[in-house]
């Protein structure tokens, strides 16, 4: 069981990513070739152009971050409050710099995400490095032993040592009876909302709801003594 003090030094987060270009043809010929080579074993019968909108967003070399939503707990006068902050910007460099600055202000906080060790944390690190942004301490794993890396992954917690399975956040929420918000989009639609509608606020709302679900799943798995009806405060300043 995680202590109440420990849970107040966890930064829960989720990221939303899209392809680096709206269309495959917008990339240079060199990059089109690199994409074709990178995905040659996954595409099967599909052409590189057909496969691009389906998978480019999840590969850090061919995608970019458009939203990072994060939150941490604060215990005020006996009441648990979840403080939410989102970084949404078409300028990925600015977005990543702002998030890195936040992490620098919270040096003792551990990062928590669902499947974060396989996706969120390495994706953020790769995108920062590609832009020449200095990695904040929580993402700089060089020379650290596995137990020294300040990352928590709710999917890994749920495995309890089992290495075989992937379990989605949506499935765990259903298992624990956590109400799932009836959103008008899901993860597969983020790219279209970004490139066609240019609606970052819609993506932000979706991302923040995932963070709230992540927090509730974390509470269930760790059996933390935090009420599930905590208040959420959104600070966009």
Automatic annotation (TrEMBL):
Domain of life (superkingdom): Bacteria
Record has Hydrolase as a keyword: yes
Keywords, in A-Z order: Exonuclease, Hydrolase, Nuclease
Annotated GO MF terms: exonuclease activity; nucleic acid binding
Gene3D superfamilies documented for this protein: Ribonuclease H-like superfamily/Ribonuclease H (3.30.420.10)
Coiled coil start-end: none
Cited InterPro entries: 3'-5'_exonuclease_PolB-like (IPR019288), RNaseH-like_sf (IPR012337), RNaseH_sf (IPR036397)
SUPFAM superfamilies in the cross-refs: Ribonuclease H-like
Domain Predicted 3'-5' exonuclease PolB-like per the UniProt entry, residue ranges: 61-236
Name used for this protein in its record: 3'-5' exonuclease
Annotated organism of origin: Croceimicrobium hydrocarbonivorans
């Amino acid at each position: 069981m995680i202590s109440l003090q420990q849970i107040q030094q966890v930064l829960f987060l989720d990221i939303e990513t899209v392809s680096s270009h709206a269309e495959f043809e917008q990339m240079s010929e060199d990059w089109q070739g690199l994409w074709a080579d990178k995905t040659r074993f996954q595409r099967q019968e599909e052409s590189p152009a057909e496969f691009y909108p389906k998978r480019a967003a999840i590969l850090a070399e061919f995608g970019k971050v458009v939203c990072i939503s994060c939150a941490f707990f604060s215990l005020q006068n006996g009441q648990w409050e979840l403080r939410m902050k989102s970084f949404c910007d078409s300028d990925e460099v600015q977005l990543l710099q702002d998030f890195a600055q936040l992490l620098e202000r919270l040096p003792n906080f551990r990062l928590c995400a669902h499947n974060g060790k396989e996706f969120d944390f390495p994706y953020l690190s790769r995108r920062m490095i590609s832009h020449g942004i200095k990695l904040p301490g929580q993402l700089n794993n060089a020379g650290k032993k596995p137990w020294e890396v300040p990352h928590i992954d709710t999917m890994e917690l749920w495995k309890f040592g089992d290495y075989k399975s992937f379990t989605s956040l949506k499935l765990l929420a259903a298992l624990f009876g956590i109400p799932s918000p009836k959103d008008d989009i899901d993860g597969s639609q983020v790219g279209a909302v970004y490139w066609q509608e240019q609606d970052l606020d819609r993506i932000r709302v979706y991302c923040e709801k995932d963070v709230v679900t992540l927090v509730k799943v974390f509470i269930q798995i760790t059996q933390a003594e935090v009420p599930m009806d905590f208040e959420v405060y959104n600070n966009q300043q």
